[in-house]
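Hi everyone,

Forwarding the result from last night's run.
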Amino acid sequence: MSTTVSGRALTYNLPNFVGELFNLTPADTPFKNLAARNGVRRVASKVFSWQTVDNPAPAQPEIVEGADPVYEERTRVEVHNVTQIFQYGVDISYTKLATYQQVADDATPWLGPQPVTNELEFQQALKLDRCSEDMEVSFLTGTFQNPSDNTAGRRTRGILTAITSNEVVASGDTLGKEHIDELLRKMAGNRARFLRPVIFGNAYQVQRINELYGFAPESRDVGGINIEVIINPLVGRMGVVYNRHMPADTLLIADMAFPRPVVTPIPGKGELFLEPKPATGASVRSMLYGEWGLEYGPEQYHGKITGLDTGE
């Protein structure tokens, strides 16, 4: 397992090795990728907002002939979130940059190909992958924080945190169709649109969905199922997506017609950029920087099942 080197990377704390290099960290971010299909909203502010409005529940009117109308108006409701800072630094000594053929330590000869020939670029690429996954986690489970001063950082509100109207608490039960049906009924009762509904779950919950909705083909040499779409009378077609960043005990149904990333572009720099930083010694420093948040739309259009059995 890799460890993190704090501060400056030197030949002593960041040794080279020979042989093929495998990256053990998957960089899949399905929620963020689907949300980005709706485009990216650009704001010149740390805080951004959107609005919701509704009509009262429908009822049969009883109006007397010749009467004046009832004069009334519906208020709009503001919803807001913040863009948070994603910032990562790399500091590589000149010697570390130069000695990419030095393996492990001074006493070890160079015995084979070293796949990393530019330590700065290699570490920057790792930071890009880490930033992408940090965004995914923030957009899913982020806790809102908009501090009044600079003693704490901003934190964007994730979609799971935002959902308050449509929640089914499983209380440790194994996921069943009854949980999904109850959630969809609750969402329908709260006027969810169901334009592009998608279920997100971790490995165990997606496997449970396969067991609940799957059927095996009648074959002697083919087995297994891979449910990618569920048909339901309330929503029609509903996608099923495995997301390793989902909490183990939670299932999310998100209408992906509405969420989209929001960015505060930095003038003269961009939306997510690498920038050289001044060094304090014989090294090269670099920073990856961006300010991003999530616009999730009306929280009533999404739902979640919490407290599920995690299979452990």
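The mean pLDDT is 93.

Cheers,
N.
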